[in-house]
Design brief:
By secondary structure, the protein is mainly alpha-helical. The protein contains two helices and no strands. The protein is rod-shaped.
């Protein structure tokens, strides 16, 4: 072999090894980019799931708050109705409806003797 052929083959080997190094770096870069893309996609998906769960809980809380306000309003109405039914005017009308009459004279029972026993 001549010196020219040897120098060409040395340059070819260097070029081949440089191509291999560049190819390996490129493959690693593509792999790293793919891994990062998959990781970002997974994190985005998890974020969407978390937001969805939070929104669902927010709707549930709002529904419970509506039920609480409805129950408070109903409780106030029932207390008002109770006060109305316990009023003296209402009781007096119910007494006459049941056929009761007012008492003219009240007699109390009293015991004949007012003696007590001593416990020893």
């Amino acid at each position: 072999m001549t010196i020219a052929v040897q120098s060409i083959s040395v340059y070819a080997k260097k070029a081949y090894s440089t191509k291999a190094v560049v190819s390996a770096i490129l493959n690693r870069t593509v792999l790293l980019n793919t891994i990062l893309l998959v990781l970002v996609a997974c994190l985005g998906f998890m974020y969407i799931i978390q937001i969805n769960i939070s929104a669902t809980k927010g709707f549930a809380i709002r529904d419970l708050e509506k039920r609480i306000s409805t129950s408070k309003l109903e409780n106030e109405q029932l207390e008002s109705k109770l006060a109305e039914l316990q009023s003296m005017d209402n009781i007096a009308s119910k007494v006459s409806m049941l056929g009761m009459v007012p008492v003219d004279r009240i007699d109390y029972y009293s015991s004949v003797s007012s003696s007590f026993a001593l416990n020893e």
